[in-house]
Amino acid sequence: MAYDFKSESEVKEFLQNLGIEYRFGCYSEKKPEVCHLLGDYLEAVKKDYEKARKLYKSNCDDYKFGKSCLKYGTYALLGKAGVKEDYKTAYQYFKKGCEQNIMDSCFNEGLLSITSSEKCGIKPDMTKVS
Predict the structure, then answer these.
(1) d(C-alpha 40, C-alpha 128), whole Å
(2) pTM for this one?
(3) CATH-assigned architecture of domain 8-129
(4) Which residues of the chain have pLDDT under 70?
(5) How far is residue 40 CA from its own chain's centroid?
(6) Which residue, among 7, 44, 50, has the nearest Cα to 22 in the 3D structure?
């Protein structure tokens, strides 16, 4: 079906159908990429940050999907969506994302290891940073 994106009702219908497709792909087909997209949908369209945060965390932990690790680490670092600011958790999730070759996650892991090692509960390892 072709949508007329100048029509508010058709945009709403498109977004509703998109949410349905993402839920099906995530919960029924168990596709990590689609679970991440559902998290992005919940965050950007529905503004339901708490559900998005929980989805990113489970997608990282259950499916080892690096982009979700990065997003959850960011939530933990900023203290967003019902969690307190937690540098240690943020560092751990950035590290998980880096292990999945997500370069932004590697950057954040390295940055925290240099600037906030005490808050992260780690000793700075300059050999990893270089």
Answers:
(1) 31
(2) 0.88
(3) Alpha Horseshoe (1.25)
(4) 1, 117, 120, 123-130
(5) 8
(6) 44
Q: Helices 49-63 and 87-99 sit at what angle, rounded to 10 degrees?
A: 50
Nearest CA among 36, 43, 33 for reference residue 57 = 36
SS3 (DSSP) at 101: coil
Dihedral angle of Cα 38, 71, 101, 123, to the nearest 10 degrees: -160
Mind listing the pLDDT tens digit for each residue in 49-82?
A: 999 999 999 999 999 999 999 999 999 999 988 8
8 Å CB contact between 94 and 87: no
| Alpha-carbon Rg for the chain in angstroms | 17
- Measuring CA to CA, how many Å separate 99 from each of 40, 62, 115, 120? 21, 15, 20, 18
Other CB atoms within a 10 A radius of the CB of residue 105 amount to 24
* Per-residue 3-state assignment (H helix, E strand, C coil) for 17-30: HHHHHHHHHHHHCC
Structure confidence at residue 115 (pLDDT):
79
**Domain boundary assignment for the chain:** 8-129
